[in-house]
Amino acid sequence: MTAPGFVSELLLGAGVLVTVASSVAALLVRSLYDRLHFLTPVTSLAGPLVGAALAIENGWGTTTGQILFVVLLLAVTGPVLGAATGRLARRGTEPDPGRSR
């Protein structure tokens, strides 16, 4: 096995481990907010780890460029979507103080 192949498999294994651990932890908690916090490592850690593994395995080219673009897009939008989901969930469960009934 070559050094890039070993590093690629190591990064892929770490990404899969983060994803599985976050998913299991999200299944074990009851609160929506806790679930959102446990899913954050998937977008901030697992995505870049898997993307880096694929980039190393494929070498430089258009495929690697597309992979890195998707990883960047996931890393930028993942936390924003998590925060927006939390705000919408809170808005649905708490009364709006400015709203008259």
Description:
With 101 residues, the chain is mainly α. The chain has helices spanning 3-28, 32-58, 62-93. The protein has one domain (3-93). Helix 2 (32-58) packs antiparallel against helix 3 (62-93). The longest helix has 32 residues, at 62-93.
Q: Could you list some keywords that capture this structure?
A:
mainly alpha, 3 helices
User: From the helix content, strand content and strand pairing, which structural class follows?
Assistant: mainly alpha
Strand content: under 5%
Largest sheet: none
Mean pLDDT figure: 85
| Tally of helical runs | 3
> Would you identify the regions where 5 or more consecutive residues have pLDDT less than 50?
none
Number of strands: 0
- N to C succession of SSEs: HHH
Distance between the termini: 68 Å
Shape type: elongated
Topology:
Blueprint: H1 3-28, H2 32-58, H3 62-93
Give me a quick take on this structure.
Helices cover about 85% and strands about 0% of the residues. It has about 100 residues and is mostly helical.
